[in-house]
Amino acid sequence: MARLPVYQRILEELLRSGTSTVSSELLGAAAQVNAAKVRKDLSLLGSFGTRGAGYDVAFLVEQIDRQLGLDREWTVVIAGIGNLGRALARSQGFAARNFTVAALIDTDPAIIGERIDGIDVRHPDDLPSIVADTSLSIGVITTPAPVAQRVADLLVDAGVRSLLNFAPRVLDVPPGVLLRYVDLSMELQVMSFYQARQLDAGPDARMPRIRSIGRTPAGPS
Amino acid sequence: MARLPVYQRILEELLRSGTSTVSSELLGAAAQVNAAKVRKDLSLLGSFGTRGAGYDVAFLVEQIDRQLGLDREWTVVIAGIGNLGRALARSQGFAARNFTVAALIDTDPAIIGERIDGIDVRHPDDLPSIVADTSLSIGVITTPAPVAQRVADLLVDAGVRSLLNFAPRVLDVPPGVLLRYVDLSMELQVMSFYQARQLDAGPDARMPRIRSIGRTPAGPS
DNA sequence: GTGTGTGAACTTGTTCACAGCG
DNA sequence: CGCTGTGAACAAGTTCACACAC
Question: Is the pTM of this model over 0.85?
Answer without folding.
Answer: yes
